[in-house]
C-alpha cells in the first residue's frame, strides 16, 4: 500500500524519489505510515521482472482505532475530512502540486511524475466522494450508457446512407480504391448492426439463464467484427494484386496488344460521395472517441479507419482516373490498386490490435496497478475494525473488472458485525463504474498464502 504513489508506474519514464531535488519532493512518502507490507507482487508488462500473481497484502497496526473514541461512529463514516492520519484525504489534498511557474525548468520525467501524482490524488478523491454517498459517478456512468446507445443508432443510420452512396460511386468510377472503401463501409454497416444487436441482447437478458448479465457480448462482437474486417481486407488486397499483374502485362505487351487497362472514371458524383463520407465519419469519430466504453472505442476506430480509407481512395482514384484518360503518364494507373492494398493493410493492422485488446479482456487480464491501489485505499478506509488487508485482486471479466478482496477481522467478532463490514465493502467496491462484481472474503488470520484458498488453474 505504501507503494501506490510511485512504484505502480511500470515504464521507462518512471522516476524514483531520490531523483527529485530535496526541495521538490512533494510526494506521498510512506515514511510515517504504520503499515507493514507482507506480500506485494503485481503483474508487470513484458520485458520487466514480474511475478505471476497480482497480490497485495498489508498488515495494519491500526492507530485510527485509538484516535477515535467511538468506533461505531467512525465505522459509519470512515472517510473523515478532519482525519489527520497519513492516508487521509486531507493529507493527500495538501500534497497536490498542480501547475506552477517554476515547472517550466523541470525535466520531462519530473513533470510526468507530478502529473501522475496529482491524477492519483484525484482518483482517491473520487473514491472519497463515493464513500460519502456521492452518486455522481454512477449517474455519469448511466449517462454514458445512454449516449453510447444513441451514438450506436446514429452510426447505424449513417453507415446505411453512406454505404448506398459509395456503392453508386464504385459502380460509376470502377476504381479499386473506391471498391476497397465500399467493402470497408459494408463491414462498418455490419459492425453497427452487430453492436446494436449486442446492446439489445445485453439490455434484455434472461436473468435465470444469464444471472450475471451478458456484458461479455460486447468484446465477443468486436472480435467477430475484427475477423470479418480482416477477411474482407485480404480479399481486396488479393484482387488489387491481380489488377497490378494485369496492368503490368498490358504495358509489357506494347501498343498492339488486345489487353486493356482497368477502367477508372472518377466523375463529380463519386468524388462528392467520398468527401461527404469522410466528413461525416470524422464527425462521428469525434463524438464516439469522447465516450469511454468498449463499444464506442470500436465504433471510433471504425470511423477513423473509414476516414483514412476514403482519403486514400479519393486521392488514388483521381490519380488512376487521370492516368486511364491519358491526362498524365498511364503507368500512374498502378496508384489505384496500390492505394487499395494500403487501405487493406491499414484496416487489418488496426483490427488485429482491437481483437488483441478484447481477447485480453475475455481471458481475464489483470487490472491496471493504479486501479489496484484505488481498491486498496478504499478497503483501508472502510472500517477501523479491519485488522489486515490480506489480498486485493482485480482482473477483466469482459468489459469490466471482477474484484476479490480478502480482509482480516478480529477472531472473536460477532458474525452479524463481520457480515455488515464485508457487505458494506462489497457494495462500496461495486459502486465503482469499472467493477462488474466484487467478492469480499472475511478471515481471522493471515498466515496462509492466498492461493491456498482456491484451486490453482
UniProtKB/TrEMBL annotation:
Gene Ontology cellular component terms for the protein in this record: endomembrane system; membrane
Main localisation: membrane
Pfam families named in the record: Cation_efflux, ZT_dimer
Membrane topology, as annotated: Multi-pass membrane protein
UniProt-annotated location(s): Endomembrane system
Residues annotated as transmembrane: 150-172, 178-200, 220-238, 268-287, 307-324, 330-352
Cation efflux protein transmembrane domain ranges (all copies): 153-352
Domain Cation efflux protein cytoplasmic: 386-443
Annotated protein name in UniProt: Cation efflux protein cytoplasmic domain-containing protein
Amino acid at each position: 500500500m505504501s507503494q501506490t504513489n510511485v512504484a505502480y508506474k511500470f515504464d521507462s519514464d518512471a522516476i524514483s524519489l531520490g531523483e527529485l531535488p530535496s526541495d521538490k519532493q512533494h510526494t506521498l512518502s510512506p515514511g510515517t505510515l504504520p503499515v507493514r507490507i507482507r506480500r506485494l507482487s503485481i503483474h508487470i508488462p513484458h520485458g520487466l521482472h514480474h511475478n505471476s500473481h497480482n497480490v497485495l497484502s498489508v498488515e495494519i497496526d491500526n492507530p485510527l482505532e485509538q484516535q477515535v473514541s467511538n468506533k461505531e461512529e467512525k465505522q459509519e463514516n470512515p472517510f473523515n475530512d478532519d482525519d489527520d492520519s497519513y492516508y487521509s484525504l486531507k493529507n493527500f489534498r495538501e500534497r497536490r502540486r498542480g501547475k506552477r511557474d517554476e515547472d517550466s525548468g523541470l525535466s520531462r520525467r519530473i513533470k510526468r511524475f507530478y502529473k501522475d501524482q496529482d491524477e492519483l490524488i484525484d482518483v482517491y478523491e473520487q473514491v472519497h466522494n463515493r464513500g460519502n454517498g456521492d452518486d455522481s459517478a454512477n449517474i455519469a456512468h448511466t449517462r454514458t450508457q445512454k449516449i453510447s446507445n444513441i451514438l450506436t443508432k446514429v452510426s447505424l443510420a449513417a453507415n446505411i446512407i453512406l454505404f448506398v452512396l459509395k456503392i453508386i460511386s464504385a459502380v460509376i468510377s470502377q476504381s479499386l480504391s473506391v471498391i476497397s472503401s465500399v467493402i470497408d463501409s459494408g463491414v462498418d454497416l455490419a459492425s453497427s448492426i452487430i453492436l446494436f444487436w449486442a446492446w439489445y441482447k445485453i439490455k434484455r437478458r434472461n436473468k435465470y439463464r444469464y444471472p450475471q448479465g451478458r456484458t461479455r457480448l460486447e468484446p465477443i462482437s468486436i472480435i467477430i467484427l475484427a475477423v470479418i474486417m480482416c477477411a474482407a481486407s485480404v480479399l481486396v488486397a488479393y484482387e488489387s494484386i491481380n489488377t497490378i499483374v494485369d496492368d503490368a502485362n498490358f504495358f509489357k505487351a506494347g501498343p498492339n496488344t488486345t489487353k486493356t487497362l482497368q477502367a477508372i472514371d472518377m466523375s463529380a458524383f463519386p468524388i462528392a460521395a467520398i468527401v461527404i463520407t469522410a466528413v461525416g465519419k470524422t464527425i462521428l469519430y469525434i463524438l464516439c472517441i469522447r465516450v469511454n466504453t468498449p463499444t464506442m472505442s470500436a465504433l471510433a476506430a471504425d470511423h477513423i479507419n473509414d476516414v483514412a480509407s476514403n482519403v486514400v481512395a479519393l486521392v488514388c482514384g483521381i490519380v488512376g482516373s487521370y492516368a486511364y484518360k491519358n491526362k498524365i503518364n498511364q503507368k500512374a494507373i498502378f496508384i489505384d490498386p496500390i492505394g487499395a492494398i494500403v487501405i487493406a493493410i491499414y484496416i487489418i493492422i488496426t483490427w488485429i490490435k482491437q481483437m488483441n485488446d478484447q481477447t485480453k479482456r475475455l481471458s481475464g487480464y489483470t487490472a491496471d496497478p493504479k486501479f489496484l491501489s484505488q481498491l486498496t485505499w478504499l478497503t483501508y478506509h472502510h472500517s477501523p475494525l479491519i485488522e489486515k488487508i490480506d489480498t486485493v485482486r482485480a482482473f477483466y471479466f469482459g468489459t469490466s473488472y471482477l474484484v476479490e478482496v480478502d480482509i482480516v477481522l478480529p477472531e472473536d467478532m460477532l458474525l452479524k458485525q463481520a457480515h455488515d463490514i464485508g457487505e458494506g465493502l462489497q457494495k462500496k467496491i461495486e459502486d465503482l463504474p469499472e467493477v462488474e462484481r466484487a467478492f469480499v472474503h472475511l478471515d481471522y488470520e493471515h498466515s496462509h498464502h492466498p492461493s491456498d484458498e482456491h484451486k490453482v488453474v
